[in-house]
Design a protein that fits this description.
Elements: E1 4-10, H1 11-22, H2 28-39, E2 48-56, E3 63-65, E4 72-74, H3 79-92, E5 97-101, E6 103-111, H4 113-121, E7 131-138, H5 140-153, E8 159-163, H6 170-178, E9 182-186, H7 194-198, E10 202-203
Parallel strand pairs: 1-2, 1-8, 2-5, 8-9, 9-10
Antiparallel strand pairs: 3-4, 6-7
Length: 204
């Protein structure tokens, strides 16, 4: 019997890897093509796709004020926000896709990487354009872990393909294997902690 298989994607991770591969922001076609290539790999050749779960956080769309010069940035109007929101909306309309959304919150301001290197090399006063918003993604890892546990304990699928480079999912992977699911791991050749590999049945 073919394994009923769920493909679960850490969206931020996949977008990062595809952007480096194609040298541009990924499209729906890029992501759909990636999913097809994963499900076409020899270990999954006879698998029955249950659903593709894509986990990501919609871009932050608030307004923030730079504390040094008072400049206001409206994130809802940025090209990055428009690209990311459109991608999620388009993915929601694809066959067999389910988009799970976390949130992005504004945590304040921090020195940008270039400014930090510059000030470390040559100490100087901090300027307004040295500061960048500190944005944190929340809820995505939790949703992935909960869905893996739900699929496993309800025996909705026989196998999970997890696309990530994040070792935070190890507890959910361990639970799924105890419940009898097979775990395939796709890291896109990203260096990962060995524990992530240990608790997968097979690396793709």
């Amino acid at each position: 019997m073919p394994e009923k298989t769920a493909l679960m994607i850490d969206g931020a991770f996949l977008k990062f890897k595809l952007k480096r591969r194609h040298n541009r922001f990924p499209t729906v076609q890029d992501i759909s093509g990636f999913c097809a290539s994963v499900m076409g790999k020899p270990p999954l050749a006879n698998a029955q796709l249950f659903r593709i779960y894509f986990y990501d956080a919609p871009p932050y769309q608030g307004r923030v004020t730079n504390p040094l010069d008072g400049a206001i940035t409206n994130f809802a109007d940025t090209a990055r926000t428009v690209q990311n929101e459109k991608l999620l909306q388009d993915l929601e309309l694809q066959p067999n896709f389910a988009v799970r959304r976390g949130v992005v919150s504004f945590q304040g301001w921090k020195l940008g990487d270039a400014a930090l290197r510059s000030i470390t090399a040559t100490p100087r006063p901090i300027l307004a354009n040295d500061l960048v918003p500190d944005l944190k993604q929340k809820g995505v890892d939790m949703r992935i872990g909960l869905d893996i546990a739900w699929l496993a304990t309800k025996r909705i699928v026989d196998a999970v393909v997890l696309v990530t480079g994040d070792s935070d999912f190890v507890p959910a992977m361990k639970l799924a294997r105890k419940e009898g699911l097979r775990i395939y791991l796709e890291t896109l050749e990203h260096p990962v902690y060995v524990q992530l590999k240990v608790h997968a049945d097979m690396l793709l």
